[in-house]
Amino acid sequence: MRAFALLIATYFLIAPSLAPTLSAQSTPTAETPPESCLAVETFPVLPGEHPHDVAPAADGQRIWYTAQHAGALGLLDPVSGTIETILLGEGSSPHGVVVGPDGAAWVTDTGLNAIVRVDADTREIAVWPLAGPNANLNTAAIDADGVVWFTGQNGIVGRLDPASTPPGTMLEPVAAPHGQGPYGIDVTPEGDVYFASLAGSYLGKIVPGEGDSFTLEVIEPPTAGQGTRRVWSDSQGVLWTSQWNAGQVGRYDPAGGEWSEWRLPGEAPQAYSVYVDERYDVWLSDFGANALVRFDPDTETFAVVPLPDAGARVRQMLGRPGEVWGEESGADALVVVRTTC
Predict the structure, then answer these.
(1) How far is CA 95 from CA 68, 131, 192, in A?
(2) Which residue of 36, 47, 50, 136 has the smallest Cβ count within 10 Å?
(3) What whole-number distance in Å separates Cα of residue 189 and Cα of residue 49?
(4) CB hemisphere CA count around 141 (13 angstroms)
């Protein structure tokens, strides 16, 4: 196993930007740890798998990941370094993975054009295909009722209620505003669902209607053509977004409809993924710097965490207390940043 720890000694703290001051910033659970308290470790996956998304398993130890080029779901044990591989079927090309309230792994499978559930105990696979042409499925999020919401870059947003929709049922997604683009998606603690449109350059909100129906609302960020790629809600329901084209992190407060934006450090940042940890620190992956970037909303400063592998391309992040996980799609590895003190 090629796994190593690298204490981060090379951090670059960037002075506060001239962006507007955060409004109604919630109190973090703890102060942002100094860079000396952070350590990076990588774990190789099988060659050629091209891991795309990760999700900490419900057991508190292992990590699910989508092996996109292998048509499989992987399950890494970071303690032993062992990997279990679950093949998802002929033609599979899994993109995203999230964990449901029941501990199952839910996969958005572009190749199968379907939502796939993998039981955490039995590894039983259930499939819900989508009607119509291939949606280029991207990401899913699960609300408190167990309803799975998902996006497709070819211009759709969809809904699956497993309690009332048996496997094999054809799903009918809804066309997104401005066509192609729906990418990241997340659910706030209040149950509101927001999605990001990369090609459409907007933040979207799902507005529930009668029964299972819903409509989609467009929320325009201040920067035009910013390429909003992913979205993450903090525990107060404030939305944080990664802006790929603009190289920025965005903050949208639904309570007041207020936006703030900050450009990442460096000459040509490309903000891909976004994740908010238990301290309310905002993490982003930056393709331009081949790094993970931590943003402290209290001080409005950035810290850059270099990745150990060249061309790592971390496409998505998730975490659990003390750990921020991502996948190096360009290096066939998973990566974690741990808080050690």
Answers:
(1) 6, 18, 23
(2) 47
(3) 34
(4) 23
Sheet holding 114-118, edge to edge: 94-99, 105-109, 114-118, 125-129
DSSP per-residue letters across 251-269: EEETTTTEEEEEEPSSSS-
Task: Reduce the secondary structure of 33-94 to three states and give it as a string.
Answer: CCHHHEEEEEEECCCCCCEEEEEECCCCCCEEEEEHHHCEEEEECCCCCCEEEEECCCCCCE
SS3 state of residue 171: strand
For residue 88, the one-letter residue type is L
Residue 63: CB atoms within 10 A of its CB come to 24
Q: What is the pTM (predicted TM-score) of this model?
A: 0.90
Render pLDDT for 301-323 as a digit per residue (tens, 0 to 9): 999 999 999 999 999 999 999 99
Topology (CATH level 3) of domain 4-15+42-339: Methylamine Dehydrogenase; Chain H (2.130.10)
Q: Cα–Cα distance between 45 and 82 in angstroms, integer?
A: 9
Which of helix, strand or coil describes residue 18? Answer: coil
pLDDT of residue 29: 54
Q: Are 327 and 312 in contact (CB under 8 A)?
A: no
Q: What phi and psi, each to the nearest 5 degrees, are found at residue 230?
A: -135, 160
- pLDDT per position as a tens digit, 72-117: 999 999 999 999 999 999 999 999 999 999 999 999 999 999 999 9
Compute the distance between CA of residue 71 and CA of residue 111 in angstroms, rounded to an integer: 8
How far is the C-alpha of 98 from the C-alpha of 115, rounded, in Å? 11
Q: Which residue has the tokens 């009918």?
A: 172
What's the mean pLDDT when you consider all of the chain?
91
How deeply is 326 buried, as exposed, middle or buried, from its count of CB atoms within 10 A (0-12, 13-18, 19+)? Answer: buried
Q: CA nearest 138: which of 128, 121, 152, 123?
A: 152
